[in-house]
Fold this sequence. Notes:
The complex is a heterodimer.
Chain A: E1 52-55, E2 61-66, E3 72-79, H1 93-101, H2 110-119, E4 123-128, E5 133-140, H3 144-157, H4 162-180, H5 183-196, H6 207-212, H7 215-225, E6 232-237, H8 241-252, E7 275-280, E8 287-294, H9 303-314, H10 320-328, E9 332-340, E10 347-354, H11 359-375, H12 380-392, H13 401-413, H14 420-429, H15 433-443, E11 450-455, H16 457-465, E12 470-473, E13 479-482, H17 500-510, E14 525-527, H18 532-536
Parallel strand pairs in A: 2-6, 7-11, 7-12
Antiparallel strand pairs in A: 1-2, 3-5, 3-6, 4-5, 8-10, 8-11, 9-10, 12-13, 13-14
Chain B: H1 12-19, E1 43-46, E2 52-57, E3 63-70, H2 84-91, H3 103-110, E4 114-119, E5 124-131, H4 135-148, H5 153-172, H6 177-183, H7 190-193, H8 204-209, H9 212-222, E6 228-234, H10 238-249, E7 272-278, E8 285-292, H11 300-311, H12 317-325, E9 329-337, E10 344-352, H13 358-375, H14 379-396, H15 400-413, H16 424-428, H17 432-442, E11 448-455
Parallel strand pairs in B: 2-6, 7-11
Antiparallel strand pairs in B: 1-2, 3-5, 3-6, 4-5, 8-10, 8-11, 9-10
Amino acid sequence: MKAVPQRRGRSMVPLAALTLAWAQPSGLPAQAFPSTPPKPARLSPVHFPPFQESTLPSGLALVVIEHHAQPVLSVSLAWRAGAAADPVGKEGLAGLVAELLSKGTETRGADQIAQAIEGVGGSLSASAGDDFLTVTADALSDQAELVFTLLGDVTLHATFPDSELELARTRALSTLALELSEPGPLAQRRFATELYGRHPYGRSPTRESYHAITRDDVLQFARQRLRPAGALLVVAGDVTEEQVRELAARVFGAWHGTPPGAAPPPPPAVRVTTDIVLVHRPGSAQANIALGNTTIGPTDPLYYPARVAAQALGGGADSRLFLILREQKGWTYGAYAALRRYRGVGYWQASAEVRPEVADSALRELLHQVDRVRTEAIPASELAAVKGYLIGSFPLTIETPSQIAGQVGTAKLLGLGDDYLHRYRERLNAVTAREAQAAAARLFRHPGLTIVVVGDATKLYERLAAIAPVRLVDIDGQRLTPAEPPLSRSIRPSSGRAPIARKCCSKARRSGLRWRASNPRGIPWCTRSATAAVARSSSKPLSCSPRQTPPRAGSTRS
Amino acid sequence: MIGFARPARTAAFRLLAALAGLGATGAGLPPGLWGQAGPIKYEAFSLPNGLRVIYAIDHAAPIVTVDLWYATGARNERPGHSGFAHLFEHLMFQGSAHVKKSEHFQLIERAGGTLNGSTHDDYTNYYETVPSNRLNLALWLEADRMRSLAVTQQNLDNQRETVKEEKRLRVDNQPYAATFGDGTTWPFDSAGCFAYAHTAIGSIPDLDAARLADVQAFFETYYAPNNATLVVVGDVKPVLLRQFVNAYFADIPSHAAPPPVHCKWTLAPGTARREVEDAHATLPAVMRFYRLAPHDHADTPALQLLSVILGQGESSRLNVTVVRRERAALQAGLFGLDERRGPGVLVAYGIANQGVPVQRLDSLIATQLDSVRRAGVTADELTRAKNTYRADFVHTRETTFGRAEALEHYTLFHARTADINTDLERYLAVTAADVQRVAARYLDPANAVIVIVRPKATPARAGDTR
């Protein structure tokens, strides 16, 4: 039964000295398999790879990272001109500007640009994040000259043709429709809106804002904001600093100009109570839960203890949310928590996707774990594990020139300081359990959390209303009101027990509680205006006696 | 099919491609001698129990990847057991003789490492990238579960629920994903080729039917050293590596060879058409699924270049015509699911822009595919495809993990691991006539399953009525 198909390596026969294991008499293990994990050997120190910084006369900052392991080249040029710079009512402008940069210059059409860079196996693209607009070009390093030529052309000579704007607008509108059909992007969009409101980080493109953008808007944005002073050019790969300086001087030497002041956006308003925004997505197979709040600016020293606390809470598979919500409970494929840094005030977020039947249990557990990390010091062994991961995995994040460029670029753009990358690990290592707890208590605000849930409200509303007040909206953010008045509420997540009225009414609902028949679509939710009277009366305790009217034709039940 | 991973929040079709266990550009990109990219230097040996070991040394950074492939995946599942190979992969993290449930990723993450596993049609991989002083830990963990997987009923039930949530997250709750997953199986029939006529994620009833005895039987049949290849890439001392491998793996007994998988299929049996309603989609879409020869077929290089020319990049034909000139699609492309020892699938797709009739989109895509069958490709297009291929390959081997996966790929899907350093010649030799020939052969309408996806006519949003 255990016939051994013996297969020898082709290129090497194991040396006798190293094959003692199978030189033993058959039937006896060569040596007992160790019953405990082997101990670590001595670790080689890791230093951040060297890089050179300089500034061109125009104020364009240049970073060169020489990395010769593979014949690759990555170049990125970033401006402080992300979506946060979109004018009110023209959300999506920075994104369209980025899209159009490579869609035509004074001497090259869009197809010519694409053919030139892709013809050598490279790529050129641009995108707008919240804070920064970035153009990135990648190619094999023997194409450095072409990469710089094309990057310079799209940066200095883009023409933003009308026809390309219309194509970009068409695709942006379709992309928006696609994103609104995906629960993850939908939750993130709503979360940003709830977290930041009308603050620049809270506004998202809409159909209306895409339609409002004119070619003049595009031209003005590009001419004013895509200037060299304050911009950052990062070049990484199999090139020399001398070669890069020469190329940069040739391509960008005559480029001048200063953008209008781009101070980080001001701190947003701080929420002091916790409620739940439920985005009704009919037929959703899961509840996508996202919760968190705004935190600190990028250079606040609280970042380090908060990073440790967020890692313990939900940074990976060896973190509380994953171990409890997935490995213990089987409620989710993954549950995580992370800090997000902006130029202005950032945020933290915990998230999980769970089946509707356990959405309330999962949200209660998430809140309980948030409270734990706020109120209990992280045990010493867990703190060591967290630091082991955060510090030990750092070399894995700087393996390729693109990764190194990303680390250096982020540090520069966010103004994290010249010593940030060199002292990152030692600063994390210095965090004590007490400091991590204090940071969590201050930055993970409960009450004060924003909670967004995307899912089928017919299955989720009552479950969530038992935890905190629920605001119901459709995928466009339009307010909905449940046909039934909101039921009893409890803001204490740890109470864990649904009030009697809720239980009773759930039962009534299952047995055929009448839905409002005025809703023509069979969705048991109707707009606020249609049910204003009901909503106003909802502060009164709801009578629990079920109205045994059978569902009307066209209505649905959960 | 990843054991655990942060949920992807990327474009719909990247998700679709990931579902099939492949990136959109196709996995297993061949290595090159083009440009400055040199060959991958590696050594290989085998233990008497049949475990094949391959290693490549790179001291550039003090990190190392341990990548263990078992030559089993969804193709080895039987009717009524769809999704089992993937569920089993999850169970490999639920404990073994000396490692408690969840302890595998705890030990690796605390050591500063990353890890995961993924289930594909033809293989299942388990990997760790760790600081190089913890090579011993990664190898010890892999050896412990190869020799002594210990799964309880409670842990089976727990991971069954987790896998169902993974299915809901990646498939049931996403637009297009269910149709894409099913669509890749429609070119094959269950009776002749169950191996590729079902999805790797499986069905909920089949997952519910999995028993602890099935777990043990699957382990006995497929998780043996003689059905696995261990690849180690990075900051490694060969003497130490051999010591660890001998100490941890040498006395694991080999098992009888797994039963062979049979797949009967026919190229171009006639056009099939399907229409599907998608409750989550807001835009109609077209997906065309074409049968492909197994990966080791001589047509593969020309087919991969064809997919770049037609469907990958800004200057690909589908993008230039359907997306840009006709403004009919938000995105359109073409890629192959060909990392199989049996027949693969070539997928052409487009998501319609708002207001574009889906039949028009389908006909525009068909016109582009037909034009290559009829008139071939230009020399410039072929050059672009070859250069793209070369660059993609160089990028995939920038990391220790990327090199490890490439070594595994060549070991499983090619005649010899050594092909990793010669395969490129096959790509260099592809001519425009070859591309046209494979287009005519595989993009034959009689070889297609054409699927139209329409948003399900759901009640409009309540907010629109005011």
